[in-house]
Structure to design on (371 residues):
């Protein structure tokens, strides 16, 4: 009887809690401001922050948790710039530098289960001199081999690099890559938009405003995208909130973002700093993102980055998506992620049902796939 009652009524926050007014606001479907986001970040009451995040998540996704059968292809780790948090990039000629030929991409793609796979996540470093046709051909090859697969490829940083290198407008790039079958952009390269922090961690990368501009043009060209935030290094709470605010503002204008993915900084094999942030900070960041980004339908708990157990916990703190099978991801594993190289479909279903949530297989655009 008691259990039944607990399930019927969502948990609430006591009237004397410092978070009560924010709780009420969110409960009334009002948008919270930057000051309120700071109050949430500064709160030590992680459970109350989670209760508020759950209000928003329930509104969007009820008890569903999404997953996708996907694979990663990192076509090259050669990169023209060096970000201080990156353990993946190399300079051409380094002993571990690699470039996949079109044939290599084909072979890699055939290692994925062709009956199951729905999405390829394809990104790489900023390669100094591959021709534009290389990128077009990679997309076309995958689409020709398996038309059911969505190609989600190239971060805004790579797209801006192509514009620069091939002297093309962003519109032109999206038109040409779209013709070959590009359907979505992954959310990488956003890092933290704050100019001050960017100068320290990725001084030669495009600015935050340029990143947003690439996504704006993508959305205008009919290409949906994701957004990320790299946190837990040298940024402040204010920097995180500024980042979320700029994303929320763009989403108000375009509605082209599908999901937001907070990415915890991993410290191994890169020079930025030596330790990683706490699990509490990770959960709080998931929760505050869920509450603040009231125009993003989904928040992804990327299990490769959080680790499986924290990703499961994040499902009680506002996240509704675990990403997917993620076969052979390289960027996080280079930076010390201890998670496995891949999960199977039944692993994902088990992880979600263990949390008493409903597993839903999706495509890249969150259409449900009956399986
Ligand atoms: O932009 C690089 C991050 C991102 C480290 O769109 C690091 O569905 C932590 O964007 N520690 C790429 N993070 C990954 C990414 C992504 C992942 C999963 C799904 C989607 C999606 C996008 O990885 C980079 C950078 O922010 N990164 N090095 C590191 N040491
Ligand atoms: Fe290059 Fe991307 Fe690594 Fe920066 S994060 S060094 S742009 S691969």
């Amino acid at each position: 009887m008691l259990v039944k009652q607990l399930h019927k009524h969502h948990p609430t926050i006591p009237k004397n809690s410092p978070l009560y007014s924010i709780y009420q606001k969110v409960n009334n479907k009002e948008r919270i401001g930057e000051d309120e986001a700071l109050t949430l970040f500064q709160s030590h009451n992680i459970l109350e922050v989670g209760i508020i995040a759950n209000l928003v998540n329930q509104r969007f996704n009820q008890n569903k948790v999404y997953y996708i059968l996907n694979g990663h292809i990192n076509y090259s780790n050669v990169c023209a710039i060096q970000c201080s948090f990156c353990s993946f990039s190399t300079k051409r000629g380094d002993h571990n530098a690699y470039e996949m030929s079109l044939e290599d991409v084909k072979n890699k793609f055939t290692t994925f289960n062709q009956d199951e796979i729905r999405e390829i996540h394809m990104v790489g470093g900023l390669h100094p001199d591959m021709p534009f046709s290389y990128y077009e051909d990679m997309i076309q090859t995958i689409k020709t081999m398996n038309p059911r697969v969505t190609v989600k490829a190239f971060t805004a940083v790579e797209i801006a690099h192509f514009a620069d290198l091939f002297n093309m407008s962003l519109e032109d790039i999206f038109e040409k890559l779209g013709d070959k079958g590009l359907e979505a952009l992954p959310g990488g390269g956003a890092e933290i938009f704050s100019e001050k922090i960017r100068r320290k961690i990725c001084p030669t990368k495009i600015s935050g405003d340029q990143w947003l501009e690439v996504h704006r043009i993508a959305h205008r060209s009919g290409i949906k995208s994701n957004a990320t935030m790299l946190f837990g290094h040298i940024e402040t709470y204010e920097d995180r909130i500024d980042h979320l605010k700029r994303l929320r503002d763009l989403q108000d204008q375009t509605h082209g973002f599908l999901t937001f993915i907070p990415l915890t900084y991993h410290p191994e094999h890169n020079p930025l700093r030596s330790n990683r942030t706490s699990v509490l900070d990770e959960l709080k960041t998931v929760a505050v993102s869920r509450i603040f980004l009231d125009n993003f339908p989904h928040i992804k708990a990327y299990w490769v980055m959080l680790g499986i157990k924290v990703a499961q916990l994040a499902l009680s703190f506002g996240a509704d998506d675990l990403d997917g099978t993620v076969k052979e991801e390289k960027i996080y594993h280079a930076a010390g992620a201890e998670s496995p190289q891949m999960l199977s479909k039944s692993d994902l279903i088990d992880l979600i049902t263990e949390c008493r949530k409903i597993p839903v297989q999706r495509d890249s655009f969150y259409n449900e796939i009956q399986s």
The two ends are 35 Å apart (CA to CA). The chain has two domains: 2-57, 62-361. The beta strands are 64-68, 70-74, 119-123, 150-153, 182-185, 224-231, 257-264, 298-299, 321-324, 358-361. The first helix runs from residue 2 to 8.
